[in-house]
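Slack export, channel: ligand-projects

TW: morning all. Re-posting the request from yesterday since it got buried. We need the structure predicted with the small molecule present, not the apo form. The ligand is zinc ion; the SMILES is in the block with the sequence. No rush, but it would help planning for next week.
GE: picking it up
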Amino acid sequence: MEAEKLEYFRGMLIEEMKSLLSEAGKTVTEMTSDSSNFPDPTDRATQESDRNFELRIRDRERKLINKIKEALNKIETGEFGVCEECGDEISEARLKARPVTTLCINCKMEAEQKEKRP
Ligand SMILES: [Zn+2]
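GE: finished. pasting the full token output, ligand included:
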């Protein structure tokens, strides 16, 4: 891929990482700010499920951040935009929609079909 395009995707990935990190920072602040002083057990239950929800989101964010790091690493090594499965180039349209993708559309569709099979 041309250097100019790589720079474009690098910028996209860094922006996405930044917004994820600021979201994650916000989540942590929200979790620690009101330090669970709810006398009503119903409120406490609500708060617990909120917390589980936050943790799940953070898990997803963490995974996405790792994917972004991998993608940035691939830009460095020149493997960015190459399908991990078949070695074909991943279409730019697909990368623009989802720059962390590691599979071309054909391999992705195949993988999804495999997942659906019992
Ligand atoms: Zn492929």
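GE: first-pass observations. The first helix runs from residue 3 to 33. The pocket of zinc ion is lined by residues 83, 85-86, 88, 103-104, 106-107 (CB under 6 Å).
TW: perfect, thank you
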